[in-house]
């Protein structure tokens, strides 16, 4: 949470002791050696972390004195100052930073600091550009600062607003996260019996999302609030994680259904009542609630006489009729199956997930970008 600025700091004041007669009314220019022999303002940067005057090849200090005693004192300085930044909207944020100048020893009764031409006192090179920020505006202010032990001091402020470029983060963060979420939806179109394919796809997307989140947070300050990028990445992570849980539910319900069907088949086989009657040819039929009345009445062509005549033949072919007994009415059974059709039909879960997951994620993106843009 700091910024570094290189600037030309120019001071203007009048010291009549330095006035000199001049026929041409031209100024005299000196280097930094004379600065130590005259009075100069003791301006320093408030909240500065590091600062230095450039000294290549010599000290970058210039002193210009005019015949009437006006003085121009210029030096080239690089300063790194603190900036209290708010990352709650990162990376869709704008930051306002301030560089503060103040006299260290002289109070407002001894020294009055002010901007020479207001906002016109600040001028920047139009070719200056930053990799992550767009410099929107500069403006100047001034006010008094009070210290309980020393008194009131004049303080000058350079305020500038920076707006972060979003394109870099779209390519490095948002776009990969969106692709990972879309990749997790591929498992909805893979057969539920392909366990290795769907599990490996889900685990890969989860680990990739974890890597993206870790990489973003590694370059950010350890702030104690949630950033905008955190909301997007963690919601994307939840979507990926839910796709893994969706297959876990599908696989579990498939296992439960297969186990239930197997038990029903075994129970039906144990409760069958074989009835062998002599028939001209061999046929096998199972009568339960799933057969229609027409199928059951198809036995009407076999009369008792034909059955009795068939009993006299020892090697005649027989028809075996299996009667399946069920203690629940057919209508109740079908109604219950219809009620839990979505739960028992694991294909339906994948079908609905193909629509619900993309729809919910698109809705989230619309809300997210409307709020933060």
Give a quick summary of the entry.
This protein has 373 residues and is of the alpha+beta class. 37% of the residues lie in helices and 27% in strands. It contains 8 helices and 12 strands.
Question: What is the secondary structure topology, with strand pairs?
Answer:
Blueprint: E1 2-14, E2 28-30, E3 43-46, E4 48-53, E5 61-65, E6 70-82, E7 94-103, E8 133-147, E9 151-164, H1 167-184, H2 195-218, H3 228-270, E10 273-278, E11 284-287, H4 293-296, H5 304-311, E12 318-323, H6 330-339, H7 341-344, H8 346-372
Helix pairs in contact: 1-2, 1-3, 2-3, 3-8
Descriptive overview:
By secondary structure, this protein is α+β, with helices and mostly antiparallel strands. It is 37% helix and 27% strand. It has 8 helices and 12 strands. Strands 1, 2, 4, 5 and 6 form a 5-stranded antiparallel sheet that branches. Strand 8 and strand 9 form a beta hairpin. The longest helix is centred in the C-terminal third of the chain and has 43 residues. The protein is rod-shaped and about 130 Å long. The protein starts with a strand and ends with a helix.
């Amino acid at each position: 949470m700091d910024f570094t600025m290189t600037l030309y700091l120019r001071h203007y004041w009048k010291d009549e002791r330095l006035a000199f007669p001049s026929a041409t009314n031209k100024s005299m220019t000196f280097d930094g050696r004379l600065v130590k022999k005259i009075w100069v303002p003791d301006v320093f940067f408030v909240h500065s972390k590091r600062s230095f005057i450039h000294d290549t090849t010599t000290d970058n200090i210039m002193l210009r004195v005019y015949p009437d005693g006006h003085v121009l004192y210029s030096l080239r300085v690089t300063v790194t100052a603190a900036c209290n930044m708010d990352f709650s909207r990162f990376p869709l944020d704008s930051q306002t930073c301030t560089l503060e100048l103040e006299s260290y020893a002289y109070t407002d009764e001894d020294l009055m600091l002010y901007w020479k031409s207001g906002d016109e006192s600040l001028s920047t090179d139009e070719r200056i550009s930053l990799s992550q920020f767009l410099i929107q505006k500069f403006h100047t202010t001034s006010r008094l600062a009070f210290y309980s032990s020393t008194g009131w001091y004049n303080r000058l402020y350079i305020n500038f607003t920076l707006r972060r470029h979003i394109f870099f983060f779209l390519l490095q963060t948002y776009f990969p996260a969106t692709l990972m979420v879309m990749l997790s939806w591929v498992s909805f179109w893979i057969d539920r019996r392909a366990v290795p394919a769907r599990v490996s796809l889900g685990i890969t997307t989860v680990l990739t999302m974890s890597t993206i989140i870790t990489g973003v947070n590694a370059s950010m300050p350890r702030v104690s609030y949630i950033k905008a990028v955190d909301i997007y990445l963690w919601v994307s992570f939840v979507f990926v994680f839910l796709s893994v849980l969706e297959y876990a539910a599908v696989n579990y319900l498939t296992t439960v259904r297969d186990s239930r069907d197997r038990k029903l088949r075994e129970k039906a086989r144990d409760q069958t009542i074989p009835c062998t009657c002599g028939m001209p040819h061999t046929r096998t039929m199972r009568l339960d609630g799933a057969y229609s009345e027409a199928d059951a009445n198809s036995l009407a062509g076999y009369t008792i006489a034909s059955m009795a005549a068939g009993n006299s033949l020892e090697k005649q072919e027989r028809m075996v009729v299996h009667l399946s007994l069920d203690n629940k009415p057919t209508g109740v059974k079908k109604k219950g199956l219809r009620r839990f059709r979505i739960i028992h039909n694991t294909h339906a879960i994948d079908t609905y997930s193909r629509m619900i997951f993309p729809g919910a994620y698109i809705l989230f993106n619309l809300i997210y970008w409307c709020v933060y843009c």
